[in-house]
Structure formats: C-alpha cells, structure tokens
Predict the 3D structure of the following.
Amino acid sequence: MSKEKLLELILPSFEATLKEAAGELKHPYISPGGCYSSNLWDWDSYWSVFAMLKMSDKYGNAELKERIVPYARGVFFNFIEHQGEDGSLPILMTAEDDDWFDCKKSDSQNMAKPFLGQLTQLLIEYNLLEAGDLKETIYNIRAFHECYRRRYLHQGTGLCFWANDCGIGVDDDPSTWGRPEKSSGSIFLNTFLYKDYLAAAKVSEFAGRPDYAEDYRQRAEALKNSIQKYCYDKREKSFFSVDLQCRQNLYPHRYWKQLNNKLTPFWQCLPLKVLCWSSILPLWAGIGTQEQIDDFIREHFVPERLMSQYGMRSLSLDEPMYAPEVARGNPSNWLGPIWILSNYIAWDMLIQSGHREQADELADKITGLLYRDIQQSGILHEYYSPETGKGVANPNFMSWNVLAGLMV
C-alpha cells in the first residue's frame, strides 16, 4: 500500500479524535475515538501525538503538523493543570470528571502511566514547547516521578509495581490482572518508566536543570540493571513481569512455637512466565542485548507462539489464557488479539536490531490488515483477531492505529 493511500484512508477518521476544550478541561486534546470519543487517556494521547508528528515528518506534511499543534500542547497542559498535590496524575480525564480512577485521592490507586517525560521530550523535539513553558512545569514533571518512587517502589529489587489491576493500560494482562494488589513488578510499567527517566533527563537539560538530568540518568541506569537482573529468564530467553510479594510467613505452632522462624526467602521476586507482547519492551527500549534480541526472535516470533499470519499476537498462542476473539470491553482484551501499538513497537525493535526483512514482513501484515478493515467495513477497530484478521471490538477506534502510517 502506498503512503498516500494510507494517509487518504486514515486522516479523515483522525479528525474526529481532535477535541476542543470543554468544562474541566481548559485545553484541546486528542481522544482515542470510538467509544472513547470524549476521553483524554494517558498513554493513548502520547502515542497519538507521537504518530501524527512523526507522520508529518515522514510524509513532509507541514499542514498536518500545524493541525495537531494546539491539541498536542493541550494534552500536556491538561495533565499538568490537573496534577495532584503529591505529584500524582490522573489516568483518564473528561469534561465531567478529571480523575475517573481516583488517582489523586489515594496512594492505594494507580496513577498515569509513565509517559509525561516522553511527551515533554517529544513536544520539545518539534519545537512545540519552549524553555519558558518549562520554567515551572519542570517541577511538575519532577513531582510526578517522585510520586512514582514514593508510592510504588519496591526497595528489595528497585522495580516499581502496580497498586492494583485498574487502569494499567494492558487491561487484562495475566501477570497483573486478577492478582494480589501491589504484587506485580510489571515489565510494561518498568520499561516505560525507564524510558521516561531518560526522556526526563533530556528535558531537564533543556530546562536548565543539569542536577535533575544527572539524577534521572542514574535512576535510569539503576532501573535498567534491575530489569536485567530480576526480569530476564535465561531458560525461556525472555523478559517477564515478576511477583514482588516474596516474604517470610510465620505461623504459631503448639509444639515448635513458630514455623518458618529461620526460613526467610533469600530471593526478592519470582518471574511470572507469561509470554506476551510486553516481553519485547526491554528489547525495544535498549535494555536487552543483541544476543537477547536474536534469541527472542528465534524462539518466540514463530506461528505457534507470538507471530500470526496477520501480525504479532498480544499473548502467545500456547498460553492457557489465550482468548483473542472475545470482545471483553471492560477491560479491553489483550489475551491474544492483534493491537497496532504492540506491532509498531515490535516493528521498530526489528528495525533497530538489524532484522529488516522480518520488520518489512510485519509492516506488510499490519498495513494489509487495516486496509482490508477499511475496505470491508469502512472503519478501523480497537483490536483484531490473529486467526481471521477481523476487527473484534470498538469500531471507529483510532488512537495509536495511526502508527501504522509509520510502518509503510
């Protein structure tokens, strides 16, 4: 498919996701579209802004960039202006409610996924934020990351955990969803936090805070080391989320007085060996080595696991939880369906690591998948069946589907 044809198909639908300021939200923003058409979500908005700005470069479309500018800046300032006193940020905002998941009300809740640093860096890259914009907001960014450390840092490993399974992005990820609170050292969460630290370091330099920048680089390096140490499994040749609730359980006994008295676990966590798309994130983010990348592709980018004829599955075919054709709705289904975001990241990882032929094959699968959906139904869907290529749920979803335009 030509890039001109893809633009012709995608851009009219994307216009519907551009929302004007209303009610509690003082700035225009980008919604995911479809059933989320009035929502401002944390990582959806980042990837939508990323996709449109990068496409404006790729296709030399200055008009597209100018069209997106107020909405891109609006996403940033809406989040900044709705920050909690402790530095927390909401996951979901609308004109009626600026904190649907009560992120700012309690540290027992999750908060916005770590994309604020990456969003800020992106806007600076495209000259959409100036040093003056960061004079005060650099402290908002810093407060956000400090809040992450206070709320969610596991001291034993240096990894962060989800407080619960609400609003985690990959909604029904089996390594978090349905599991005990504060137990999931999510590879998704920690990899994006690593990326956000690196982005915040560059933002801090731009804002004239080299002290912040150096601290962020140190945090990123420490987190990278923790991910390599605790989340990589040599036998499975993959990164995984880990269970952080490994503790000594003491029990009174009528004869021995106390069981397990001298049996403290010397391990800090246990791997949750669920093979899903999140396992590629450290490989994409520069945490994994070339050998780890090559091993993963050889072992897991195969039809009986992650790779289907229509694209990369979000959960491996051989996992017992695999159920890709169920339109779950709330939460959305990540138990195998093809999501364009995860496939874009896989494609980018393949490009970066020198696997160009496989990257081209994946790009052909994804662009063909979306082209057929538009031709047959006139719209895009939130996710797709890896077995039939059909849209599964939420027609008129746009969001990060636009990333396919970068894969042409």
Observations:
- The chain has a mean pLDDT of 94.
- The radius of gyration is 21 Å.
- DSSP finds eleven helices and 15 strands in the chain.
- The longest helix spans residues 210-231.
